[in-house]
Amino acid sequence: MPEHEIAKHTKKIYKAIRDPKHSLKHRIGEVAVEIGIIVFAITLSLFLERWRERQHEREIEKQFLVGLKTDLANDIIQQGEDSTAYTKVLAGWRYFRNAGIQKHPISVDSLLRYQQFLFNSIGLIPNSSRFEALKSSGQLMVIEDTALLNKILDLYQYRMRALLSSTDNFTTIKTNELNHLFFQNMRIQPNGSNNLPDLFQIPQIQNALFSAESIPEILIRYHIVMDESREIIRLIDRQYPDEK
Asked: What would the 3-class secondary structure string for 23-79 be?
């Protein structure tokens, strides 16, 4: 109720109390009516305001969850590609290490197949800006489904961070140890050829290649993140079936 309306009814109450023309009973009745009008109007105003807030919150929730579904779908595609690449890294590094330890010559086909995985980095770049924006605004509680909210929080604040920690650690070892050893020991000839196949017999490089044994854990974390992302998408689709 606007302030001027409250003031108007308050004046009526004041006049009714002081009006000598009416009995006490009549004046009390008029005061009660005016108070009732004020209380009802304020209650209705508060109800309508809360209703508008809830409608606004539901719209924020819908926009966030529908957008989040797109983010997660794109992440799953990248995660699938990353996990496939890590599988190849594991196979390649094991091949090079075993060949070096056993003094076996490196085949040209294997070198061409796995060489890129010695130097290229693989890491997830999650589409998390939408989640971080809602979190920083303090509006995460607009998500009414508690189970869905808990899964989203678990994904971004635990599962995703654990995955990124694993891949970052692997990339750090590869960059600071393996790549450093390669660049330190590689010799490029005037004709463009190099001694890369021979470097796998160096014990320090064999030790650095052993860090690939952390990849199975990385793959497990990738698939946990993908499975949890799919479950979140399923819950969003259940809540907004028309947005599929």
From this structure: CHHHHHHHHHHHHHHHHHHHHHHHHHHHHHHHHHHHHHHHHHHHHHHHHHHHHHHHH
Tell me the two tokens of residue 16. 């009714």
Residue position matching structure tokens 């650095």: 208
Neighbours of 232 (CB within 10 A): 19
The DSSP code sequence of 144-160 is --HHHHHHHHHIIIIIH
Backbone angles phi, psi at 194, to 5 degrees: -145, 175
Lowest mean pLDDT among 37-46, 195-204, 234-243: 37-46
Q: Which residue has the tokens 């995660």?
A: 79
Kindly report, residue by residue over 72-92, the tens digit of the pLDDT. Answer: 999 999 999 999 999 999 999
Q: Which two tokens stand for residue 32?
A: 């009660």
What residue type is assigned to position 211 of the chain? Answer: S
Query: Using CB atoms within 10 A of its CB, is residue 85 exposed (0-12), middle (13-18) or buried (19+)?
Result: middle
Tokens for 39? 């209380």
**Phi and psi for 188 in degrees, rounded to 5?**
-105, 130
Contact 97, 209 (CB under 8 A): yes
